[in-house]
Write a structure and sequence with these properties.
homodimer, 326 residues, alpha/beta, Rossmann fold, 7-stranded parallel sheet, 52% helix, globular
Chain lengths: 326, 326
């Protein structure tokens, strides 16, 4: 095999379309590096047929998401489907990249060519949902993966972002995580197509399940009528319970989306999210490019209260605009 | 008192500078509404002298942040300082605003004119750290509050954002929140000036404290040398332990920042964060404004893969640009 630098983007794109693992991994790395050179290649990949079922799995820390994803992969593999997993981890300034936890937990899947797992760090202060996450989904899609799982850790913005990037969203809760969790559930209730209560071997699991069902019942009265009614699935990774039910529910959700008119609505929402996120990425790149120059001068003025934030931001947008157009 | 609509922004600014509670509350509401009319007023407020100590308090759900903030306020009030609290909650689609939990927990502080508490929702899909958070901090600063606490729920992006908006950052952990928490701690380790382990009446608290200290010891070797060494403070809200120590550490951190050269570095970093966030807000506003027109057309093309995301985003930026300049 040629050394990495010698492989052109066009060769990589060809490799991705042929489903070659090494090409997929390298193309994702190029997407992460964000170099101009890979833009055209990623554009071609985006335009390639998109047949994958994109599933977002999210939940609070400690909810056992990673274990659940690993079990789900094993179950889905029995049907022969090719599964891609993109795990978006919080930034680890020390490791300089994704935390290895997820990869370790998914160790049992190593050696199965039908499962591709990639951990990604969020991009520090200016990141959010890592900018390479959605290009990575495109790459796996174009490479012929049947289902692509985006796993996010966290509460708040990322949950909302992931639902706009997935056809089906699974929100994982766990018993015994305290009061604050309930408050957060209220916020993510609306975004879940499927609720999972993990660790259901625990004695306090029933309490969590019934609380969740109560909240859903209240929510149903307030939300738009839909062809799909979110369900609550109890799972236990240690007892290997509920995973089949979850796999079936994920398939059933896609089926319902496609049979109802909601498939197109969801795809449009995903594209809208993608458009805004990409525009923001371009803005951030420009900001980085001008950091030592125009940005620094404005930051100094702002610190000394010689200018106010809105005026400064307008000035920055104006100054960097010419280059954005190039 | 005049009806709300009749009060001009200039009258409100005057009221804020005089420290009047009703003017502060109304000005924050105008900042939240994001109307053009309040921009000039918020600019004036930003430029007013900024003497407040801004403290970010963050941590995972279930860590007992809100209780800690309430106890901290009570302790700080003994010294006579005026305290402002901005609590940024995850979006609750059902309540249409901030969850009331924090306000309820802080009930004991009601009636104390020296403490101003405001809960804010994050702004759904396009929010992150709510765009009114930093203007609200400016308002409280200009109104003469000595310390302003920004409390955020969540893990990931918000933590990193809050540290860039605060002079002093406190990260709260709690015992018994499971394995994933440890992974997240690795991510937020570097951003904390002070670590708190809450709920230290629990028997498993010592384990959390020593794990945290071990991680800090590893981190110290990797990070830049600094005048300040992050400490780990054990607190118990039920036993009212450790809160005095925390209050002292927060003061000591500011003192160290000011005596070392790091004060200016931190202020520049805060202004840089502010600049980028404001530029992004302007972009999002434009996006909203064109949602039914230019955006919809591009989204349709993107969904049909007639265009790729980068090209679409450049086109959008170009199309909406003229109006940004106005």
């Amino acid at each position: 095999m040629k050394p990495m630098a010698a492989i052109s983007s066009q060769e990589l794109v060809k490799g991705v379309f042929e489903g070659r693992i090494s090409a997929i991994a390298r193309m994702i790395t190029r997407a992460e590096s964000g170099d101009k050179d890979s833009e055209e290649a990623l554009g071609q990949i985006y335009k390639a047929s998109r047949n994958a079922h994109i599933v977002g799995i999210t939940g609070v820390p400690g909810s056992g998401k990673s274990t659940l994803v690993a079990e789900l992969c094993k179950t889905l593999r029995k049907g022969g489907r090719k599964i891609g997993v993109i795990a978006v981890d919080p930034t680890s300034p020390f490791s300089g990249g994704a935390i290895l936890g997820d990869r370790i937990r998914m160790g049992e899947l190593v050696g199965d060519e039908g499962v591709f797992i990639r951990s990604m760090a969020t991009r520090g202060a200016l990141g959010g949902l890592s900018r390479a996450t959605l290009p990575a989904v495109d790459i796996l899609d174009a490479a012929g993966y049947d289902m692509i799982i985006i796993e996010t850790v966290g509460v708040g913005q990322d949950e909302v972002d992931v639902v706009r990037s997935a056809h089906t969203t699974v929100v994982v809760s766990a018993p015994g995580l305290g009061d604050d969790i309930q408050a957060i559930k209220a916020g993510i209730l609306e975004i879940a197509d499927i609720h999972v209560v993990s660790k259901c071997d625990r004695s306090d699991a029933n309490k969590t399940i019934s609380e969740l069902k109560n909240m859903l019942a209240i929510g149903l009265g307030l939300s738009e009528p839909s062809a799909w009614t979110p369900s609550v699935i109890a799972t236990s990774a240690t007892k290997n319970e509920g995973i089949d039910t979850l796999a079936e529910a994920i398939d059933a959700h896609l089926d319902t989306l496609k049979k109802s008119g909601e498939w197109q609505t969801r795809r449009l929402a995903m594209a809208e999210m993608r458009l805004l996120k990409t525009a923001e990425d371009i803005l951030r790149d420009q900001f980085e490019r001008h950091r030592a120059g125009k940005v620094q001068a404005l930051v100094k003025q702002l610190t000394d209260a010689e200018i106010e934030p809105h005026g400064a931001a307008r000035k920055l947008l104006k100054d960097v605009w010419k280059e954005i157009l190039q």
